[in-house]
Amino acid sequence: MLIDSFLIIAVFIFGSIIGSFLNVVILRLPNPDESIIFPPSHCPLCKTRLHWWENLPILSYLILRGRCSHCRVRISPQYPIVELLTGLLGIAVFAQFDLTITAAGYFIFCCALITIIWIDLHHQIIPDVISLPGIILGFVFSFVSTFVSWQDSLIGLLVGGAFFYAVSYSYYLIRKQEGLGGGDIKLLAMLGAFLGWQSLLFIIFASSVSGSIVGLLAMRSQKKGGATRIPFGPFLAISGLVYLLFRPQVRQLFQLYLDFVAG
Question: Is the separation of the CB atoms in 141 and 105 below 8 Å?
Answer without folding.
Answer: yes
